[in-house]
Amino acid sequence: MAFKPGILHMMIGPSGAGKSTYIKTVVRGRVIDRRWVVSSDDLREEITGDPMDQSANRQVFAAMHSIIHARIVNGLVAFVDATNINTRDRFSVRNCAPDNARIVYHVVDRPLADKHRTAGWRADVRINGLSLIDYHHEKFQKELQNILLGDDDQRVTVLDMRIM
Q1: Distance separating alpha carbons of residues 105 and 98, to the nearest angstrom
Q2: What share of the chain is helix, strand, coil (3-state, %, to 5)?
Q3: Would you list the domain boundaries of the chain?
Q4: Is the per-residue pLDDT at 133 higher than 90?
């Protein structure tokens, strides 16, 4: 009998888009076991003590990729809760899965005004002179076409769950 790997579900969307909320409440009415979720924010808190601390991202993402790989090669499901808006980041996560694994992109976003209204701690974070919300929004818009094409990876199915 051939080994069948698990399914890799990648949340993709800018900061504040609703990725974590989507996992918790929207995924087709299914019950998502919290053990299936690999969250960069949760790992950041585990490693640094603060989910907003970006100082140990190398360790955070190395741990995340290791966990994703282990789950997928052992036939388990992984929901990756991170922005995944950069091509390089999506490639790194996809590389955690074997060539015969199914990959699902869950593309999540909501209007920019809504993200600003509920920004919380994100309102205080600045990148290159922009708020985190604005920076990620712009980056996401630049990457959106490639994302919706599944980055030309035949293993990828795209679910566009954006609210406009």
Answers
A1: 16
A2: 45, 15, 35
A3: 7-160
A4: yes
Cα dihedral 45/48/52/56 (nearest 10): -120
* pLDDT at residue 2 greater than cutoff 50: no
Which pair of structure tokens corresponds to residue 77?
A: 């499901």
Taking a C-beta distance cutoff of 8 angstroms, is the pair 79, 9 a contact?
yes
Non-local (6+) Cβ contacts of 130 within 8 A are 138
CATH architecture label of 7-160 = 3-Layer(aba) Sandwich (3.40)
- What global pTM score does this model have? 0.89
* Residue 35 banded pLDDT, cuts 50, 70, 90: confident
- Tokens 């920019």 locate to 112
